[in-house]
Amino acid sequence: MNFTASRAYAEEPTELKVWLDQSQYAGNVAKLAKILESDLKTVQDWVYGRNEPNSRNKIKLFEITHLPSFAPEPGASQPRLLPSDQSQLHMAAPDQEV
Fold first, then answer.
1. Is residue 44 part of a domain?
2. Residue 96 has pLDDT above 70, yes or no
């Protein structure tokens, strides 16, 4: 028999999940994945607490969400990873196409 182990979810909603639900994305993980230029399954894993993003993706997430948990390490030199127009998407109207 071939069993696939179920991936555990976080007990409580993650900070990213709470932000996503309250953002212009209205909880839409697919839209966030598109903006991040990341695989949908990967972003789902971050949102639901199954995996942590790597440092490069944390920077992208910080540029969009401004959540402290994704902030670069103090004093670290971090390049901008998203074009400046995409990093401002958290301010866009909810019905605006992303």
1. yes
2. no
Helical pair 40-47 and 15-22, crossing angle rounded to 10 deg: 110
- Evaluate whether residue 96 is within a structural domain: no
Q: Which residue range is the domain that position 65 belongs to?
A: 15-71+80-91
Residue 97, in any domain of the structure:
no
In angstroms, the CA 49 to CA 51 distance is 6
pLDDT tens-digit profile of 32-51?
999 999 999 999 999 999 99
Distance CA 88, CA 73 (A): 21
Phi/psi of residue 46, nearest 5 degrees: -70, -45
pLDDT value at 91 more than 50: no
User: How many CB atoms lie under 10 A from the CB of residue 23?
Assistant: 19
Q: How many domains does the chain have?
A: 1
Token code pair at residue 73: 């390490």
- Taking every pair of Cα atoms in the chain, the longest distance, rounded to a whole number of angstroms, is 51
